[in-house]
Amino acid sequence: MLEDEKFTREDGELLIKFARDNIKNYLKTNKRMIVPDKIKKKFGEKYGAFVTLNKIGISGNPLRGCIGHIEPKFPLYETVHKVSVSSATEDPRFPSVSLEELDKLTIELSILTPPELMDVDNPQEYLEQIQIGRDGLIIERGMRRGLLLPQVPVDHDRDWDKKTFLEQTCRKAWLPKDSWKDESTKVYKFSAILFEETEPNGKVVRKYIGTNED
Fold this sequence. Notes:
Blueprint: H1 9-29, H2 37-42, E1 48-55, E2 63-69, H3 76-89, H4 99-102, E3 105-112, E4 116-117, H5 126-129, E5 136-141, E6 144-148, H6 162-172, E7 186-190, E8 192-197, E9 204-208, E10 211-213
Antiparallel strand pairs: 1-2, 1-3, 3-8, 4-7, 5-6, 5-7, 8-9, 9-10
Helix pairs in contact: 1-3
């Protein structure tokens, strides 16, 4: 079975509801909720994942928080349990979300496939191997590492080409934008299974890059 066939829309609905309930419990009690047995049993396979919070009714970039684990080191339920709260309270770009504000935010979940190191003889070959809308990127050099999810180049009216995507991922790693051309830089690609709420506490849909479909 392909990775993106392992998760149904109903799975996405369960995981996003779990993420929202977990954030709400933390904002009320300063503790993560106890993971329901149903969630543990159903989502015990190891995956990396990101939880993204977005403001509604905002033109441009509505981002309010985004935190995740790249590598599949933990069961998916444990990853979501950790990063959902972190996205609301630990993203260094934003102050912590308030309980009142949470009801004005939508939740997006990205379940990641394992990163694949791109093996090239010439850095220009990256441009041939990357597909916008399918691939996310990780740029790594020394202790610096940056990740951009597959939806980033096309969401919010962006229209990045492959070169821009590489450059922006370098910047996310706090590297010069042309660092992807350096032979000491490692470039990984991955894909993501995406789910999102259509409105706060609303219907959850499977997200396909550029559109929403059930």
